[in-house]
Design goal:
138 residues, alpha+beta, five-stranded antiparallel beta sheet, 4 helices, 5 strands, 42% helix, elongated
């Protein structure tokens, strides 16, 4: 049995790149045996043959990539030892990471609010510039 299923590949392809998404969607979660590390996979990068996502459980949780063959090797060994599919959590549908990692909720909200405020400020500046460029009506 392989870790990377056809269904996962289709979901990753449908989502495309999410590197600039406010709240990227997770397709699957890979947990190492003993569940010390969890890798929330948001992308599959075919050219590099690696997964990209959020790694939780290290001294500094962070975004990063991991080669598919490394995941497959750990998955295979764990399957042989346990006889179970305990390292992969296939989500029924891609799920925003903020729903799976609560620590993301506040930073994502702040980023969205900041972006909205910047957009509003630009709009106000454009309107002000238009108003200043027009002749006053008599």
């Amino acid at each position: 049995m392989t870790f990377f299923t056809h269904n996962m590949k289709l979901q990753f392809k449908a989502l495309g790149k999410q590197e600039f998404a406010d709240d990227p969607k997770v397709v699957t979660i890979f947990k190492t045996p003993g569940e010390k590390l969890a890798f929330y996979m948001t992308e599959y990068r075919e050219k590099e043959d690696c997964f990209f996502g959020y790694v939780k459980g290290t001294s500094v949780d962070s975004w990063g990539s991991i080669p598919r063959n490394n995941i497959e090797a750990i998955y295979k060994v764990d399957q042989e030892i346990s006889g179970q599919d305990r390292t992969r959590t296939q989500l029924s549908k891609p799920t925003p990471i903020s729903e799976l990692v609560p620590a993301f909720k506040e930073p994502i909200m702040v980023a969205r609010l900041n972006r909205l405020m910047e957009e509003q400020q630009k709009k106000n500046e454009q309107e002000r510039d238009q108003d200043q460029g027009q002749e006053p009506e008599h």
